[in-house]
């Protein structure tokens, strides 16, 4: 298929003022009657063309007149109708088959035929699987929806908008009607029908609206929805306070399902969540999962303004809603928890997922110029890098300026389908600043390298910082332009004190931290009155999504690791130092960097003045994927071994007795509590155990087994299980068997059981995965379960997946083909695990190529999987 291009965008010839849907729900067969009131000028317009995929057309009429075969044509996903004009009402009746739909797009069944429920997923182009419509985000219509179904089988009927009546029908059936007063694109349509329980709460918005907040789930898990309801209330208040945004309907429904392709969906008034991001309880959720629930609830809620009230003109603008909403969620989570810890978590995620994407064959701009399958563009680049772009711009405007800009954005574009240009214009106009130079960030793929070189002139007491930037070519973009890169910085003296900054050209001293902007290939910045060679702390808080290259000495990095007041940069100095240690330690010889890293961390460990959670993060070197990202020829087994040896050095330097003493101290806490201090203790305790096992496996295994048995919450239990399983302890099998039985009826917990085993490092992993895929609880049909095993293996276990014999690749290629026949979206996403294969060492590289080429040649691959496989192979 030909790609769809941004530059070919045309306004729609036809729009839809209103749509009335009447849906007769059944598991095997559902009939959808749609009446759309058209708006358009047929004199100028192309004939009316509506999208519709695999719909069984039962009847069709225009302005009350049944159409004959010559009046319309339905083929290849398009319904063309000849005689429509502005004001025409087109009525169609179609049949769809929810139970047979394994793609989890459109209308489908979650759970079993007997007990499951029906639901929809329409973003990006799922509505065309339900009825005929111009399935594009710039067609906004008023939705009226009537649902009809058997009352016994489907006692709960929900759709987006406000409730507008319900009643009884003959033959045990009933109906419910919903009217959405806010025009919306069809990707925000949703319905849910089945046997569901709820918890609810009244909420009064700041502008005086009484809203019912209702969370729905299957009966057996409704008790695990309370945390999400609390989180929802928190984020609603926060959005009122921080952005002046109020909720705008009388009800807000949220529904949990175990069968979902992504994390959650922001359908207007009826959010639908992957249960993984809605359910939480201490017995089966880790601290990290609690935070994820809070974050995803907030993300979806924030979409009500950034995505729903102001939506996207076309799917190229996806980051307009996603990048901005990720940013808003990151701000919220930082406010609710800890700013530096959240920043560390987000930057680590960016480096693990987005940097490799930007450095390989799948690289694309935050606003792609073309796509074949839009579902393949819900990427780390659009989401995470997109958020970093908003953060840079927000930093440029300052807190008040950004709020002013956002207010203007909402004022100008409420009820519209907007573009990234609209967003930048509103932010810029509100602050009289030209933000158009930032558009280049949206258009250019690849991670810029920021090179920094400092020179000290003792005679003039000047420090000159030369910054330069370079972005490597990416597919289809051989040439790169310089971007505006805001660099937040401070200078430290050798005792670790921050220096006042006298930047040449500035009228006066500007504190001890400031932002300088590099917007040329190279620029010099001169700092005056500097009495001794300083240590620069650059890119503080990760002020731009770039790779910083700076020739720091180990001592300089150790100084920042010990003294930097910016928690993020402190962690960053440790990461850079660990990288240096990794690069310079060979054959068991400790380099100066390795020594400096271990010494600095051991000192911080002993001091006990640092927050437990931050200390846990400081004690964690970059992950294997991050190490691989810096190498031109990658040997994942070697990287794993080298990283292990680095951690071994650190453990030795701290010493068994200090580690043990700290472990015992941390074990005295009551572990089921959610308070930040308790969470921090659990995080550090896990890290200490992971270091201890490198020094004294037997003793650590005993402690882990005890921790597993006595754990009062999932965080401690899973940490212990993971240490036992990954280090092949004799106690592992008993713990695994216990876990398997204890959580037999809890799919989310069981997913963790699959994952922890799929992450066993090295060649042992493959046989484990092969055994587990034959477990009766394993199924490819459920995305969470498929991800918990194959996703964990292929995307998070490099030393397990990348075997020299290619058996990991062969297995995944085979399963991709099977998965593709069921659910192309999930198959395509899993296939991105092959990203970066071109940089593997030659033996693995040819094995990976063989597997990919074999997959590419298979008949009948979906457009989703074909696009990823062919792009990865480039
Ligand atoms: N906006 C939502 C995207 C989404 C999605 C996209 C493609 C296929 C299935 C999907 N489910 C949800 C999620 C979000 O970013 O909030
Ligand atoms: Zn989103």
TrEMBL record:
Pfam families membership: DUF3458, DUF3458_C, Peptidase_M1, Peptidase_M1_N
Domain Peptidase M1 alanyl aminopeptidase Ig-like fold: 446-550
UniProt KW Protease keyword: yes
Molecular function GO terms recorded: aminopeptidase activity; transferase activity
Reactions catalysed, as given in the entry: Release of an N-terminal amino acid, Xaa-|-Yaa- from a peptide, amide or arylamide. Xaa is preferably Ala, but may be most amino acids including Pro (slow action). When a terminal hydrophobic residue is followed by a prolyl residue, the two may be released as an intact Xaa-Pro dipeptide
Ranges of residues in domain Peptidase M1 alanyl aminopeptidase C-terminal: 555-873
EC class: hydrolase
Record-annotated Aminopeptidase N-like N-terminal domain positions: 44-188
Cofactor(s) for this UniProt protein: Zn(2+)
Ranges where the Peptidase M1 membrane alanine aminopeptidase domain occurs: 227-434
Annotated signal sequence range: none
TM ranges: none
Keywords: Aminopeptidase, Hydrolase, Metal-binding, Metalloprotease, Protease, Transferase, Zinc
Record-linked InterPro entries: Aminopeptidase_N-like_N (IPR045357), Aminopeptidase_N-like_N_sf (IPR042097), PepN_Ig-like_sf (IPR038438), Peptidase_M1 (IPR001930), Peptidase_M1_dom (IPR014782), Peptidase_M1_pepN (IPR012779), Peptidase_M1_pepN_C (IPR024601), Peptidase_M1_pepN_C_sf (IPR037144)
EC number(s) recorded for this UniProt protein: 3.4.11.2
Family from the record: Belongs to the peptidase M1 family.
Protein name: Aminopeptidase N
Organism of provenance: Dyella acidisoli
Underlying gene: pepN_2
